[in-house]
Fold:
Amino acid sequence: MLTETKTYNRSDAAPAVALTKPGTSRLSDHYFSRPAQFLAILIQFALLVVIVDYWRLESQSLTRLLCLAFVGFVVHHLLPLRFRLPFFAMLSLLAVITGVGHLGPNVFAAWLTGRLALNDFLYHLVPGLALVGIGLGLIGLCHLPIRFGARVGLVAIAGTGLAFLRAHSQWFPDISEMWVILGSMFMFRLMVYLYDLKHRTAPFSPAHAVSYFFMLPNVCFPLFPVVDYKTFCSTYYNEDWPRVYQTGLRWMLRGVFHLLLYRVIYQFAPLDVYKLSSALDVGGCMLGMYLLYLRISGTFHLIVGLLLMFGFNLPETHHLYYLATSFTDFWRRINIYWKDFVMKLFFYPTHFKLRKIGPIRAMSVATLVTFVATWILHSWQWFWIRGTPLFNWKDFSFWMILGVLVLVTAIYEATCGRKRTLTPSRLTLRRRLILGLQAAGVFSLMCILWAYWSCQTWAEFEALLDAASKPTFREVLIVLGALVLVCVCGMLWGWSSRETSEGRGTQASRAPFRFWPSTMAVTAGSLCLLVAPSVVTWIVPASKGLVGRLHSDVLNARDMAQQRRGYYEELDVSRMDNWAWHGAEEPEGWSKGRKAFFRPRSDFLLTDVVPSTNTVLGGASCTSNSLGMRDREYQKAKPANTYRIVLLGASNDMGTGVKNDETYENLVEDNLNSRVPDSRYSRYEILNLSVAADSILQRVLRLEQEGFEFQPNAAILSVSAVDEQFIASHLRKALIRGIEPSAAYHDIVQSVISRAHVNGKMPAVMIERRLQPYVTELCKWSFQRFAQQCAQRGIRPLVIYRPAPADFSGLESTARGKLLAMARDAGLQVIDLSPAFDSVTDRSSLILAKWDDHTTALGHRLLADQLYKDLVPVLFGSLSIQQTSLLQKP
Amino acid sequence: MNTQDIKTTLKTFILNEYLPGEDPAALTDTTPLMTTGILDSIAVLKVVTFLEDQFHITIEPHEAVVENLNTLSDIERFVTSKQV
Structure:
């Protein structure tokens, strides 16, 4: 049955932990050196737990898991060897049962203090217990006393049934959280387990099986390395524990570095294809897309490092994979767990079956079969994590291209051979240079291939290439400089020992290990990560915002706008504590009124608001008046003794996500009417003509076509950092819909369209990208037109700069200066509302939700405060200013 | 073929195929081949084919692993066990 060790008698199965027994060590080693080493390991482990919590890495679940792992590690180490594996199995089950159901200390404390009923407390255990029950059932099927083929058949039937239930997870809402983790634990490991069970290559026992499938860190990581069962068993304490633990700590710290670097890339790299305007941008974008994979390598280092802390001396994964010197080298370095998994289950069996047709042919077919399997299994993984299958040409072509590249390199290596040496010889400068050039070549090609994989559509990738089609000499030099840097790194670190997971199954001789220098390095690195933010913000106070962004786990500007990411990004469901289950997709009904509230127009304004409509936008009720404004009711004709202002803006000015009375323009209007800053007027009205996504061109045109009819005394043009992007988007929509610009706008728009070489038949992303160099010109023209049109009618023109609640795109400071300078150059008076949010430490608290970056009611009140304060002196003179804090209003 | 003959045949094959120009004395019976990257997954396939042809044995995919093929001694032991 499950304890099937009778046919397994490998000599290397005996753990090397026996080396640590006092009888075989010197007395001083036993009483002084070992306790000191263990204490140093404890300190480093504790520091890493603090770092993960401090930087809010992944999720709160991870911090909780690491706390549990820390306590478990101490107990595990102090236990006699024979009890360690069963203890690890129990600890893993505990982590699964509490982790899947989000049974944290708060819930436990609430139950203990009577604030939570027993039934409610037990309810938290249901998903975890269901997972454990199903998992144990699957393991049991593998060990039924029937023919092996029948067992495999039963497991396949059970797997199909579970997949069906996964696809209909809504049938069992109480356990919906368990499917992702169940999938990540069993979808691949069952195959490996059955393979090793068939060939009896490892020991089998309940403790081994439970430890293998429910592995402690898995509960926090849906994307988990496919650990090989045989390696998992054979590496258990196969080296002296200080070396194993210290290596684990080093890898965990490396994982933390990767995850932080990922955040830098994710937040600051130019990843939005729509905004690329030069070959350099394209280079940055491709590089950024490739570097986003740091998230996976970071989590894998963290996971494997943590497993080493429990004695599983697993092989290093993702070893300097960005410096691979060939495609086979890349395949051997990046995710070696996956490589070994597909080699074991697909490559070798296929090759051995076909070897009669000749080695090269067999290798070619086996390699292609392996990559097709990789594609299918990635879709299988996608299904378990997202609940829907993923089969498209882009993924298929990505894996096939990579497969062909690996195959070509493998054939070259098989026929021409690669240089192997028995003794480690010094690499000559020529050899190093070749390695460096190879690394730079592979790096560049992988950047392009990865960008192709990450782009959502072929059109997007085409636009990416189009943006890079006319590089300047300076841009070429910069890109070459970056490649030279990769080349130098390749020269220094490109040589790989090509370690495989199988290699660690034995006690192969390795480089001598120095415990204390490694300890010092990990401790110093950890302390740096804890202290650096405070030091940096103290030295450069302006960096506070940047550090804050690295601390928060929010979508970047591109994803906030488009809600999409690459393959691995979209599988990122680990932040389940903080985010909605599927990343940051907006909940159903959040913007259900979008279609009802707006209607298309056939002229250059493209869109307007449907009059007298009541619906939901951004999670809040939204009402339009009979004149087609998101505002209160007004008479069309201006009443006597009324000072009337028209406001022209976009969704944030329209008040998406807040109620009618919470918009900043209504708050200012209320305040003007209660304070009466100018005795000549008894009534003040601000008519909100803002429409979501209106560009500056549309706003000025809307003023001309609609706003002037209301006889305003003043017109306020609200601008923000994203306005240049809105212009490109506006023209793109008009072009695709074949809408001609209004007469007065015709010349400038046609001139830009002609110079940008765009037409309505091009992919949308390409049109927008090609228009990028001309948006500043259109902005300037719009400001001039606004000033001129108002002057002709004796209307007071004003430009206000409205800050974004949170500056996800990092555009704020430069865009503000640029826009305001253009407005001033056009002779316009400007009011900069940027200080409105200065009092808010956490700017992300001013956005509606993770999936919606519109301004909250608090943000509107702060804007209203600032606008009232600055507007009154401009329009009515300084004597009438009465400081009022709208925030004090109930 | 005795054990020494097996090792000698193997050693000659590996030196000719993968380590041309290397000092034969440096390749001992216990020199790690797979764990040091001298034999990668593609080279292992060639070795397997060689072993099958030379010693008239059949090797299964799950047997092409480090425990059986890491050193000349491992390979000799493995071949001998297959010939029994």
Q: What stands out?
A: The first helix of chain A runs from residue 27 to 54. DSSP finds 34 helices and eleven strands in chain A. The mean pLDDT of chain A is 86.
